[in-house]
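Hi U.,

Before I forget, here's the chain from the pilot set. I'm dumping it here mostly so it's searchable later in email.
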Amino acid sequence: MLELVISERGGRSVASRQFHEGALRVLRPHYLDDSGQVCYVVVNPGGAYLGADLFVVDLDVQDGADLLLTTQSATKIYRTPGSFAEQRMAVRLGEGARLELMPDQLIAYREASYRQRTHITVGPSSSLVMAEVITPGWSPEGTSFRYEELRLRNEIHVETDGGMELLALDSVLIRPPHNDVGGMGFMEGFSHLGSLMVVDARVDQALADELVALTSGHSAYTGVSLTRTVAGTSGVVLRSLSNSTGELNRLLGACTTLLRKRWSGQEPLNLRKY
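Structure:
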């Protein structure tokens, strides 16, 4: 279990509460620029997710606070005989709060089964940018491992005067036919999936069109769609298929760079991990 509460103090975002139990924990905070945004890195000393593992993450980014959350390395799902591995994440964003959720890629290895459930609550003036890349594991012989199933579910609500209203329910199920992620007719023959979800009052059709134009220069199969609008807040979802983790990271990085420069005046994200 990992709990993190981020508050704004004197123009900088800080952790007002931090708790961990079991494998997950965070490194000391970093400030990558002078914007006041705090960056935390989640680490898993165990190295991987195994069968019947349950990881629970609770994030509360309070009014006016700004958090960039990433991981130290890829999330690896190894064989899960008997039961799937699971991650449950609850995220709350206060008024004027901002969260950039930028984990490294999720790698599913042979005979892996994994479920990821993320429940997000935002305010009408909150800003959320969430990116993820899914890739199959590989073997020394150069062939892909055959994972069994990946289930990823994102549920996003907007706080309104009358309570909470559903903005988007985003569900991805990847169950490779005959455990072959490269089979014809499945994911258009691609093996890697990239996703970007943005929720902000500034999201509109013009932004969606701009993202489409931006991704057209990349060698990936991409689609963009808008969510409904609740309390003046909308979302845009981008899906991209490729055979390369690097290509998807570059594509998603180009999109997040556009948003960072336009909305917060920040430079492109450079976490300097590798």
